Amino acid sequence: MAKRIRRKCLFQLESPSDAVPLSPSASSKIPFPSTKVRKISSNQEPTKPQISAPGGYNPTRIFPNLADPVKSLSSSDKISTAINHLRRSDPLLISLLDSCETPNFKSNPPFLALTKSILYQQLATKAAEAIYNRFASLCGGEAAVLPDTVLGLSPQQLRVIGVSGRKASYLHDLATKFIEGSLSNSFILEMDDETLLRALTAVKGIGVWSVHMFMIFTLHRPDVLPVGDLGVRKGVQRLYGLKELPKPAEMEKLCEKWKPYRSIGAWYMWRLIDAKEIVKNGCD
């Protein structure tokens, strides 16, 4: 039963085009990358990145709302800080925190991760993996999954390896936005959550749920609450003994105490679905 519930969690959709292959359980096997922070002297103003690209974009345009990289869940110390905060702020989590392994997330370059999320939409894991492996081979390997390469693949070439015409259009739209400069790996890493949500949902085939999963499992953003994820909603329902699944507004209210580490709280809700018998108090 837990496996069936978990599958609903991983591929729960907001719309027919919105899913992502970022498995909460699988994410615990891969370590974090390091995050570098550039030091700025007291007399030097920080420089924001500028867009310099073809396609009608202003090369002097300043990109707004940069995220603070220090806030990324990029080390075991930061994870420990988050867990200690949850332990203090929500006693109902204590049994779960003590019984489960410590979170650890996978990292891929943003373009690769987003490409993979599109390819995995609405597919069973094995089928999605097979198509993704053929796609990567068609590109010349994962290291060659780049905007220029993807845009150079015709819909016919993609169809041969099992990619639908609709997904091919999504991949091309994503690649085009990278080539034109409205998106880039560096901009994605530096945008704050709100700006990133707007930028990525402008890509065909990427919706709010997909962006939330991307923020948590690829960018390791600490305070993302995926209020539309079925697994997280079921976890919150069990944790607080609710009769019905909480709606987004209720989720926000109940999980307010988890701030600024709601991503970790959500991660433990997936664990609660996997092993609901661990937490008895307030779950049934």
TrEMBL record:
Residues 40-50 have a biased composition (Polar residues). Residues 119-274 form the HhH-GPD domain. One of its GO terms (biological process) is base-excision repair, AP site formation. It holds the Pfam family HhH-GPD. It comes from the Eukaryota. SMART domains: ENDO3c. SUPFAM superfamilies: DNA-glycosylase. Residues 16-58 are annotated as: Disordered. GO terms for cellular component: nucleus. InterPro entries: Alkylbase_DNA_Glycosylase/TA, DNA_glycosylase, HhH-GPD_domain. GO terms for molecular function: alkylated DNA binding; DNA-3-methyladenine glycosylase activity; DNA-7-methylguanine glycosylase activity. Keywords: DNA damage, DNA repair. Belongs to the alkylbase DNA glycosidase AlkA family. PANTHER family: DNA-3-METHYLADENINE GLYCOSYLASE (PTHR43003), HHH-GPD DOMAIN-CONTAINING PROTEIN (PTHR43003:SF8). This is HhH-GPD domain-containing protein.
